[in-house]
Write a structure and sequence with these properties.
Distance between the termini of chain A: 13 Å
Shape of chain A: globular
Distance between the termini of chain B: 61 Å
Radius of gyration of chain B: 32 Å
Structural class of chain A: alpha/beta
Order of helices and strands of chain B: HHHHHHHHHHH
Structural class of chain B: mainly alpha
Radius of gyration of chain A: 18 Å
Largest interface: A-B, 52 and 43 residues
Oligomer: heterodimer
Helix content of chain B: over 70%
Largest sheet of chain B: none
Shape of chain B: elongated
Strand content of chain A: 5-15%
C-alpha cells in the first residue's frame, strides 16, 4: 500500500513543526513498526541536523545532488542530477548502527532558500507538483512520509500541500496563534480549489488534525488556548475548510527541556530520555495520530 | 573523531575483520600469561555479544514483537501500572500476575504471550485499557457548551443580561459552561462574577475568529 504523505505546516514559526515530525516519526518507526521517511523542506535544515550529526550531515550533503534542493533544481533547470536512492539517508540516527532502522531521512540544505525564487521564476508547468512527482518513486516503500515544512506558504510549502494526503497543523495554545491558524486553513482551502483538477486519481487531501505544542497545564492561558482551538476546529469543520473528521490530537505536547536537549544530541527524545514528559507525550501522540489517520479513508 | 556515515558498512564488522587478520598474522610471537588473560576476556565478551545477537535476530512471531514494542513505549510505561497489567493479564489470558514490581509484571505478561494468538489478545486488551486511561469518556456535551460560549460572545449587553437571567439562573449551569471552556474560577467564584469572566472570555474569543467578523 502507498505511503500516507503527511505535511506538518503552519506559517507561524516556532510552533513545533520540526519537533513533531522528528519525534512522531521516531515513535511511529520504533513503537508502531512503521516505515517512515522524514522529508526536510525547511532551508534551516533543522530536521536534518536533529537526526544527523554535523559530520554526517556535511559528509552526506557535500554532494549537492543528495538534498531536496536538487530535486527542485532538476525540474527548474531540466537536469537529471537528483537520485532519490542516494539522497535518502537510511536508518537515522546512526551511531555504529542505525538506532531506528525504520526511520529514513531526505535532508534539506540551506540553498533551498534560493529555490523559492527560482520556482516562482521558472517557466515550468505545474511548479507545485515537483515534490509529489519525485516522491512517487518511493511511495510503496514507506507507511508514512512526513514533510517538515518551512514557516510560510511559498512555492516549496505549496509543493508540500500538493504532495500531502493529509495536513497536520502544529499550534501553540495562545491568543496570537488562533487567527494565524484560521488564515492558514483559508489559504490551504483556496489552494485546493485552484488545483482541484490536478488531484484526480488520488486520495482527496485535506487538513486532518491539529497538534498542541509547548503546553503548560498549570497556566490557564494555555488551557484557554486549547479550548479556543477546539472551538475553531468545530467552526472550520462546519465550514468545510478542514476534513469533517479533523480534530485536535491528544495529548498536547508539554513544554519539556529534554526535547530541546535531544535536538542538541541529534536524537529523538525517545532515545535521549525515555522517561521524560516529551517521550511520554510524543509516544502517546503517535497512538492518536495513527488512530486518526486510519479513521480517515 | 569523524562519525561514520549512515550509508557506510558497520564499522564494528570492519574492526573485527581487521583484528582477526592481525591476530592471524602476529600469532607466532604472541604468548605469555597476560596475553592469555586478555584473550580469555575478549573471548567471554564475544560470547556474550553473540548470545545477545541471537536474541535480537531470532525469528519471533510478529505479534510478540509488536507486544514487546508496545510495552516498551514511554506512554505505555507511564500509563499502564501494575494493577493495569494485572487486569490486562486476567482479561486477556485469565492469568494472575504475581509480581508487584512494574518491570517484573511486564516480563510476566510477555512470558504469558506464548503464541501469536495470545500476544494479539494481550495487545488488544492493553491498547483498550491505555486508550480508556488516556481519554476518559466525556459526560457533558462539550461541543454544545463550546458553541454556547461563542454564541454568548456575540450578544450585546442587554441580550447577555437576558440570557444570564433566564438560561443561567443557577450556579450549576454557569459552572458547567465555565468548566467546559477552561475558564478559571468555576469552583470558587459566585454566579455573577463567574458569568462576567465567561463574558470576557466569550467576547475575546469571538473577536479573535476572523470569519465570524464578516
Amino acid at each position: 500500500m502507498a505511503a500516507r504523505v503527511v505535511a506538518f505546516m503552519n506559517f507561524k514559526g516556532g510552533v513545533g513543526k520540526t519537533a513533531s515530525v522528528v519525534n512522531l516519526g521516531a515513535c511511529l518507526a520504533q513503537f508502531h513498526n512503521q516505515r517512515v521517511l522524514v522529508v526536510d523542506l525547511d532551508p534551516q535544515a533543522s530536521a536534518s541536523l536533529w537526526l544527523m550529526t554535523l559530520d554526517q550531515y556535511r559528509d552526506h550533503t557535500a554532494r549537492a545532488a543528495r538534498t531536496v534542493s536538487q530535486l527542485f533544481n532538476d525540474y527548474i533547470k531540466g537536469t537529471n542530477a537528483f537520485d532519490i536512492e542516494k539522497a535518502i539517508v537510511r536508518g537515522v540516527p546512526f551511531r555504529e548502527v542505525p538506532l531506528i532502522p525504520k526511520l529514513d531521512l531526505l535532508p534539506a540544505a540551506v540553498d533551498l532558500i534560493k529555490i523559492e525564487e527560482r520556482i516562482q521564476d521558472s517557466r515550468q508547468n505545474l511548479p507545485h507538483t515537483f515534490l509529489r512527482r519525485s516522491l512517487v518513486a518511493v511511495l510503496d516503500r514507506y507507511d508514512y512520509i512526513l514533510l517538515d515544512c518551512p514557516p510560510n506558504f511559498y512555492s516549496v510549502a505549496r509543493n508540500a500541500v500538493f504532495a500531502a494526503d493529509d495536513i497536520v497543523v502544529p499550534y501553540i495554545p495562545d491568543f496570537l496563534s488562533l487567527s494565524g491558524v484560521e488564515i492558514f486553513t483559508d489559504l490551504v482551502a483556496d489552494f485546493y480549489k485552484k488545483i482541484a483538477n490536478h488531484l484526480t486519481g488520488r486520495r482527496k487531501p485535506g487538513i486532518s488534525a491539529f497538534i498542541v505544542s509547548h503546553y503548560m497545564a498549570r497556566q490557564n492561558v494555555f488551557e484557554q488556548g486549547v479550548n479556543d482551538l477546539e472551538i475553531l476546529a468545530d467552526l472550520l469543520r462546519d465550514a468545510g475548510k478542514v476534513r469533517k473528521e479533523a480534530r485536535v490530537l491528544q495529548p498536547g505536547i508539554r513544554r519539556c527541556v529534554r526535547v530541546a536537549e535531544a535536538a542538541g544530541r541529534h536524537l529523538p527524545v525517545i532515545l535521549h530520555d525515555r522517561q521524560s514528559n516529551g517521550a511520554i507525550d510524543y509516544s502517546a501522540l503517535a497512538d492518536d495520530f495513527t488512530t486518526q489517520l486510519r479513521a480517515i479513508k | 573523531m569523524k562519525s561514520p556515515s549512515p550509508q557506510q558498512p558497520l564499522p564494528i564488522a570492519e574492526k573485527l575483520e581487521s583484528l582477526a587478520s592481525r591476530i592471524r598474522k602476529e600469532h607466532p610471537p604472541l604468548g605469555g600469561p597476560t596475553v592469555a588473560a586478555a584473550i580469555r576476556k575478549l573471548s567471554t565478551a564475544i560470547d556474550r555479544f553473540e548470545a545477545f545477537l541471537n536474541t535480537v535476530t531470532e525469528n519471533r512471531p510478529a505479534a510478540l514483537a509488536e507486544l514487546e514494542q508496545f510495552l516498551s513505549s514511554p506512554n505505555v510505561r507511564a500509563g499502564l501500572k501494575v494493577p493495569d497489567l494485572q487486569a490486562v493479564a486476567k482479561e486477556a489470558v485469565g492469568l494472575r500476575l504475581k509480581s508487584e514490581r512494574l518491570s517484573k509484571a511486564r516480563e510476566e505478561l510477555l512470558h504469558a504471550a506464548k503464541t501469536a494468538t495470545l500476544a494479539k489478545k494481550i495487545l488488544f486488551h492493553a491498547r483498550q485499557r491505555l486508550a480508556l486511561k488516556a481519554r476518559p469518556p466525556q459526560t457533558t456535551d462539550l461541543r454544545g457548551l463550546r458553541a454556547e460560549l461563542l454564541r454568548i460572545g456575540g450578544l450585546d449587553e442587554t441580550s447577555a443580561e437576558h440570557v444570564f437571567r433566564t438560561a443561567y439562573r443557577n450556579i450549576t449551569s454557569v459552572r458547567a459552561l465555565a468548566r467546559a471552556n477552561a475558564i478559571r474560577g468555576a469552583e470558587r467564584l459566585d454566579r455573577e462574577t463567574l458569568w462576567k469572566e465567561i463574558l470576557v472570555q466569550a467576547r475575546r474569543l469571538r473577536a479573535n475568529i476572523r470569519h465570524l467578523q464578516n
